[in-house]
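Attaching the record inline, Q. Sequence:
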Amino acid sequence: MFQKTHREMINRSGLLSLLWATLQQMVVASSTYFIIIASRLGAEKDFNGALKYIAAFAVSLLVVFLPNTLSLIYLQKWRLESFEKFVNSFTAVNFGKTTWSHNRDKTVHESWLTNEALNVYDNATNLLYQFFSTLLSFVLNIAVIAVILDWRILGWYLGACLVLFVFNRVFQKTIAAAALGAQAARNTLNNTMLTAWENIFIGNRYNIERWHADLNVNLDGSRRAIVHYDLVRSLISSVTVSLAIVLIAAGNAIYLFQYRDDMPMIAALMITFPRQLQTVQNIFAFFNLCLSWSGISHQLSQLNDFLSMSQTPRNPERFVQFANISIAHGNESFKSTAAAELIQRLEESTCGRFTLRGRNGMGKSTLLALIAEGTGDRSFFLPSKFGELAFRHLDTVQESDGNRLLAVFEEIRSINGVKFVLLDEWDANLDAENIRLIDEQINLLSKTVTVIESRHRGS
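Structure, as predicted:
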């Protein structure tokens, strides 16, 4: 199955990058043709003809830089367009799955979106570009050499490619397992780095020592996993390519023996040796790319699983202790036994202020997230750590948390089409004066919409 994460890499920039890479390799192959013909004509003492082909060869060396530059430019665009499509797909699939924003899920999964996705698409597009360019390079160059000199030359290289293909199939799972191990170790290290900022700047020696201990463990694990991946891939490719080179060297030896008395043919073959050496290197690189793709493909598959993580069946209500949470509304108080029941009760109100009451750990934040999921675009959810949400003016407010929250409320009041405003522990880290000011703002807001809040300090 061609998974969603694979399809993200099919875009305009990717196609243009490969198109320019094709033109580049066609120019390179033409240079091979020109120099072979020039050497043959020179051996036949047709120096005027040889000079013409040498001139064409020189021109091809100059012309090749244009498609090469353009292909690399579009390669960078390809990488970012692929990542952009992934982020858009991730947003479309997971938008509004508020219960997944909880720290217990964020800690485990966040680095996939913030670090790993871009890293995987960077590696995948680079690898596909090199894969395509390398394949075209040795196919076109060997085709030119075979057409001009001897079709049997194709046999040497087809035999070498068969060896590479067989070894790639045999060791595909081994490479994939090593690649996934390296990815898992890198992801664990990324998760540790996501907590670096506060542990470093807060200044608590106990926390920084504990964080450094975790970092050292994860760095060591990442080093071992990466070395294992590179070592496995290197050993397999070295043995395989050595066998392929033996086949190619034997073919050249047979050709030299058969044409030992034909100087133009010998000269033509000799002039191809640098290009054949480059082709052998390309075969070596191509095989390594095939091995690497086994790992990248599995990484893309894991990214595909992450893409739709919020579709995983689960029951977040198990984290809510409904019996220990009461809902205050004006002078009355009531309890609910399920999120759907509470949403139905809230739907009956046109406006007002509802406050969730209960001790810490009873699941008030999870209940708010369930209400947000159940009401969709009709609700606006403001978590206690609202600083990472995108607001129009929040970045321009460089003052206290209270002033920043007041600026956020100004924007919330200007949003149209919202029936429910959900506030999670909005009074955390605020002094008494700011709590009073924002409490007044909430009272004003509750005259036009339904406000459902949880309080850090109680109501």
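The beta strands are 326-329, 332-334, 352-357, 379-382, 420-424, 450-454. The chain has two domains: 4-311, 316-454.

More tomorrow.
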